[in-house]
Amino acid sequence: MTDQCRTIVPAANSSGFLPITGDSPRVLILGSFPSIQSLRHCEYYGNPQNHFWKIMDALFAIDHKLPYPERITQLTGHHIALWDVVQSCKRRGSADDEIRMPLFNDISGFLTAHPTVRLIVLNGTTAGRYFHRINLASSIKNHILPSTSPANTRYTLAEKVRAWKIVRKNCEYGKVTEGLPFHMEF
């Protein structure tokens, strides 16, 4: 991830990360845009308060305390790819509502290059809102799940884990499954 590191200047244009994917990803998890801590650490979900890695620990037994490269290897081994909807933007701080002038990633190109993706999971309502602005001509199902951000205090960790079980179900099986009913408003 070192080649993806950027110098962070508040309110300046920031660029996100390249996608992380292994062989034959089945689930693409899209966040909105990396936090300042994630950009500084050069890691997806690099803020230790973010629940993402704790949720992956609960679902796949990927120890959230492992070094980042090992977590990524295990995650991609479960046929999960990571990326963000926003490629670059202006943003003061880490809050999603501070994103200005977003430039979107080529998600359509990613899906063309990875035809094994069967489900797109959107990490929070901002990722969902931006994803739907792209207007992809795709038949791939997508679900907006509760944000793993520490700013999302509306849901407990246990509630987030329950909602995110759809990821595990779609990594284990060959067809898209609906999982537990969960509805996000945006």
Walk me through what this model shows.
The protein is an alpha/beta fold. It has a single domain, classed as 3-Layer(aba) Sandwich (Uracil-DNA Glycosylase, subunit E), CATH 3.40.470.10. The protein is built from 6 helices and 7 strands; from the N terminus they run ββαααβββαβαβα. The protein has helices spanning 36-41, 52-60, 68-77, 107-113, 125-134, 157-172; strands spanning 13-15, 27-31, 80-84, 86-90, 100-104, 119-123, 141-145. The strands form 2 sheets. It has a 4-stranded parallel beta sheet with strand order 3-2-6-7. β6, α5 (125-134) and β7 (141-145) form a beta-alpha-beta unit. The longest helix is centred in the C-terminal third of the chain and has 16 residues, at 157-172. The chain is globular.
Number of helices: 6
Low-confidence stretches: 6-11, 179-186
Radius of gyration: 15 Å
By CATH, the architecture is named 3-Layer(aba) Sandwich
Biggest sheet details: 4 strands, parallel
Number of domains: 1
> H/E element string?
EEHHHEEEHEHEH
CATH class: Alpha Beta
Q: Quick one: CATH superfamily? A: Uracil-DNA glycosylase-like domain
Structural class: alpha/beta
Percent range of helical residues: 25-40%
